[in-house]
C-alpha cells in the first residue's frame, strides 16, 4: 500500500483545480458585493421615492391614495413610483443646479 503511481501531468491538473477553486471564491465574493450594492441602491431609491411623494403632498396638499378608487382610479404611491421608474431621467438634477 505504500506504492504510489504519479501520472504525467497530474501536478498540472491539481494546480488547475486549485486555480479554479480560487477563481470561484473570487466570483462568489464579487457576487456578494454586487448583491449588497443592489440592496443599498434599492434602499436609497425607496427612501427617495417616499421623500418625493411627501414633497409632492406638501406642494399640492393632495396625498396620493394607497389604492386606486375604482376603474379609473387616482394616482397612488405605487403608480407614482411606476411612472418614475419608467422615466429615464428625473428633474432633480435640474432643480438642484
Helical residue percent band? 55-70%
Q: Helix-strand pattern, N to C?
A: HHH
Q: Low-confidence segments, ≥5 residues, pLDDT <50? A: 73-77, 93-97
Q: Note the main sheet.
A: none
Strand content: under 5%
Written account of the structure:
The chain is mainly α and 97 residues long. The chain has 3 helices and no strands. The protein has helices spanning 10-60, 77-86, 92-96. The radius of gyration is 27 Å and the shape is rod-shaped.
Give a brief rundown of this model:
The protein is mostly helical and 97 residues long.
List keywords for this structure.
single chain, 97 residues, mainly alpha, 3 helices, 68% helix, 0% strand, disordered C terminus
Mind sketching the topology for me?
Blueprint (H helix, E strand, L loop, with lengths): L9 H51 L16 H10 L5 H5 L1
